[in-house]
Structure formats: C-alpha cells, structure tokens
Here is the input.
Amino acid sequence: MQIGIVGLPFSGKSTLFQTLTKTHLDPSSLVKTETHQAVIKVPDKRLDKLTEIFNPQKKTNASIELLDVIGLQKGDHGSVQFTGNFLSKVKTNDALIQVVRLFQNDLTHLPSIEDMIKDVNSFESEFILSDMGIIEKRIQNLKKQILKAQDEQLKKELVLLEKCFEYVQNEHPLREADFFKEEMNTLKTYQLLSIKPMLIALNFSEAQINETEKYLDKLVKMKSGKNTKALAFFGQIEMEMSQLPEQDAAEFMNEYGINESALDSIIRESYDLLGLQSFFTVGEDECRAWTIKIGMNAQEAAGVIHSDFYNKFIRAEVVHYDDFIKHGSFAKAREHGTWRLEGKEYIVKDGDIISIRHS
Here is the structure.
C-alpha cells in the first residue's frame, strides 16, 4: 500500500512525513526537487502480545510505503501551480493525505476556516479538472472504436466513463460515486485522481489544542462524502515526540492531552479509508501481521501469504485473537469451540489468527 502526502507550501507535509517515518532530516539537507519515500511498520499491539507469547525468532509488522510528494510550484501573486510532475507522482498512490496548515509562523498568518476550505478545494478542483481531461479524451477514442467495431466491452466502458464525466463535470470527486467491483477495476487503469481515498490532516500548533473541533466540524460538514476523512494533528509536538523514547513520548502526550499519536491515528484512518484489515500467522519462527481487503475469503487471504497456498488450499485453522487471549492457548480455544476449521469461502475477520492447510 502506497500513500502520498501532499500539501501546499509551508503546510507541514514534510514535517509529517519525517514524523511518521522518524527520519528527522535537517531542513537544510532536504532536497526539494526529489520525492522522499520510506516504508513504515504498522503498529499493532495485538502482534506485540502474540510475539510476547510465542517468542519467535522474528516479528514482522504489516507495512505502508509513504511518499512526500513534491512538484507544487509558486505562481504569480502567491498562487500555486499544480505541475505535470506533481500530478504524475500522485497518480501512483493508493490513497492521499492532504496536509492543511492551520498554525501561524514567522512566514505565514494564522489561517481561518475560510482559508482551510480554500486550501482543501484547491486540490479537489485540480484533481477533478485533471480527471475531466482524461475521461473526455478516452470517451472520444471509445466512440471512434465503437463505430469501427460494435464491441460490447467497449460499449460498457463508454457508459461507465460517461457516468464519470457527468459526475466530475458537476464538480464532484469520483471517490463519492458508487461503482461495482468490475467498474473499479476498469477505472484503475486510468489512474484518476479524484477517485483516490483522501485523508485531510489539519496541522495545528500546540496553542490551538482547544480549537480543533470547530475546524473539524466545519470540514466534516463540507466533505461528508464517501472515502474522505479528516483528523487534527499537531505537527511540531508530534515531531518532538517522535524523537523521544516510548515511555517519555507517552508522558509527553499525556501532558498535552493527546490521546493518540499521529502515526497511530493516520494508519487507523488510512486502513479504514482503503477497506483494509489484518490477520496473523504465529509460530516459533515468526509472528506476522498480514494486510488484506475487508471481505476477502480464507483462500484469498492464503494467497497473500503465498500463491501456492491459494492454489493448493484445503482448509484454514482459525481462532480470533480475542478468543485466543481469553483462553490462553490453541488447545483451550479448541475445547471452547472458538478454534475451528474453515473452508475457502470463510470471510476472514480483522484479528483472526490463521494457519493454512494445503496440499
């Protein structure tokens, strides 16, 4: 899973990237012409507990690739230019985090709710405009192809794209539209921008801790559509916390009344946006968290581990994490009927501990 972090100049997107990845680069060393990327581990206390119980040789967290997407340029009169370079980098991401500045510093004024709305809409409008051009061009090509050959698949694609064009023409992002799975698979080939799930991260200063709700409430009312979420974070505080030992960071959070770190909240919201969940495999060799789409069955989940497990799937031994912890062992879970054998159509749940039987 690849998530791109985007934002206007001075929004704090690079600060967020460094906080999440714990890179902590000196500002003077940052290369503004390069997209920085890093793979981060997904924190999971359940995996930590399983590792403590099984004491394996190796623990493997699920992971996310983060990109600090560059390419925005300042235009005349303080405007921002969405360059082709920037848009091409955004197209490869599975989801986006848009960082919006709501703090004041020596270079900038204190933003208002109106400024927040303007910043959010600047990205939305640009993404919709980009999608409109791509869809319109494809519609024209499809009509020419259909005139030459009455292909039913091409006709279906044309109907789908005309639906999309009407949507973006009315200034609605495609992420808010309803599509069937087959339609989504078709649209993925176009790498459309407004269809990507969006997490809007409002970046406040520590002096604004008691002011976040009014901004979030306004944003939620404005962006109440599907596949869009919003949260508040405190960039400078989070940066300082990420450089502290775990216990000191917890005390730091408690002092400022922060219930959840930016890393935890952003990963949780990103998983929710993308419809993802985790299951576990455990043993003496390795305890590991695997990321799958919500709704995947046991055979599909087995294929995430290894293609042979999918092709040669027989049964899945399953017990939920909560039941395993409650009973204390597989044997006890079996006695209470919470450990069981499931077939390939079993729908995997978040937190399942699974062992695959295969030929």
Residues 295-358 form a domain with the Ubiquitin-like (UB roll) fold (CATH 3.10.20.30).
